[in-house]
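Entry 14: structure prediction run for Putative response regulator receiver protein. Input pasted below.
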Amino acid sequence: MKFLIVDDDFDSRKLLQKILHPFGYVDIAVDGEEGVEAFRAACKEGEPYDLVCLDILMPNMDGQKALREIREVERELLGEACRHAKVIMISGLDDNREVHDAFFLGDATSYIVKPIRKQLLLEEIAALGLTLAPLSE
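Run finished. Output tokens:
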């Protein structure tokens, strides 16, 4: 499984990486622009991400705009019938407008409010239909 974590907060990135690392390959981006570029590069290499964990409030490009651009990259490089990456929006904001925008404007697949809790994240990933199996060493 291949994961992309996009978050400007070091502690959040570190926690997400620690949770996801046993289940696959994890890339990190520190803002929306870097996240979109990482996503584009993975698609061009024919190895798109299975899951993107995307913070909403970030410098340079916020998570909402990054999500819309990620969906555009999928259409552009993988075609309309492509398998969309699962995207979990992660934010300190428990705001109805942010949730609405994430789902209806950006086509997010899930939304989690910080603080990130391991069990909740793993349950959410399973609910999205992704099977998390520990990598053999």
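Notes: The chain has a mean pLDDT of 88. Will compare against the previous run tomorrow.
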